[in-house]
Amino acid sequence: MSIESLIRRASSYTLVERELYEEKINIMVVGIGGAGCNAVSRMKKLGLSVPTVAINTDINNLRTVEADKKILLKKYTKGLGSGGLVEIGEKSAILASKELENIFDGIDIVFLTTGLGGGTGTGATPIIAEIAKRKGALVITIATMPFKIERARFIKAKEGLKRIVELSNTLIVLENDKLMEIAPNLPIKKAFIVMDQLISYTIMSFVDVLTKPSLMNIDLEDLKRIMKNGRYSTILIGEGDASDPRKIVVDALNRPLIMDMDYSKASGGVIHITTGENVPLSAVYSAVDAISSLMKDNANLMIGARIDPQFENKMRVLVLLTDIKIPILGEEYEVKSLKTYEMERSQR
Ligand SMILES: Nc1nc2c(ncn2[C@@H]2O[C@H](COP(=O)(O)OP(=O)(O)OP(=O)(O)O)[C@@H](O)[C@H]2O)c(=O)[nH]1
Ligand SMILES: [Mg+2]
Fold it and tell me: What superfamily would CATH give domain 233-327?
């Protein structure tokens, strides 16, 4: 049989859904501190369909937010907030460890959303990441950096980010300053909604990759293995016309609002492509090639793909890259083990 006739026959096949793979994964989105809880609440209003939890030291904020579950860290603060002190945010979460542990029962993946710079989000998020991780969940933290003009808050946020990087499996950092670049004229609340939409889109795309039937499947164990092998990782998403896959990849790498990271040392990762039934193999190849050309020669890249009729002539590329560098934290930032971090905390 000639190769041409094999190709002709292949094009007339339709996919058999039964052979595709479906996995049940328990996912949860947790907002921490004022900005984090507000983000969760707004995402819920935008239609985020994942169970949500709002955690804060501030009872007034918790009263106003919408979430499936609310946890007030009250033992140390009496519900009056942390007064901007990171140590208080941290201590309040430690004192609520038991209650926090319970929310992660049976959870496979947890997204933590927080605004760094205040006391609660900056102090409590590393503790909550650690608790979730100990319970066996994969922890994906989506943190926002405050405006640089907030000065001391920005410095505090950087310190918090270092801890969060150490204690999360993967991290996405957005910058409030970048809102000034793309939406300077929007009222502040609306500008934050721009950010919430991006967070929500990232979460929902990730959930799709893991839970919807796939042609080339990436499962939770694959993700865990890849994230464990690399030090720091991040997730990028691009979407556009399937006729220009390279542009989609470039857009993913340069997404507005996302903090600049250095991908050139990336040693591994996952690339997942969602596209329409008729998009050619060469388009998929070209998207993967655009990513892999960024990475080390011996990088370990895993590929997943899903056909979705809603993506006719369109393509969404989700990339998770490990061993990235975070320039804002400086080339020399100290890499601490969890043990060192715990020892330091007990000495404070
Ligand atoms: N993206 C975004 N950033 C916000 C929002 N609200 C506040 N921020 C930023 O987030 C930073 C942290 O603020 P909060 O979340 O209010 O602080 P907190 O974690 O509640 O801490 P304390 O109130 O000090 O206990 C601020 O410095 C702002 O830059 C929001 O709704 N969205
Ligand atoms: Mg607050």
Answer: Tubulin/FtsZ, C-terminal domain (3.30.1330.20)
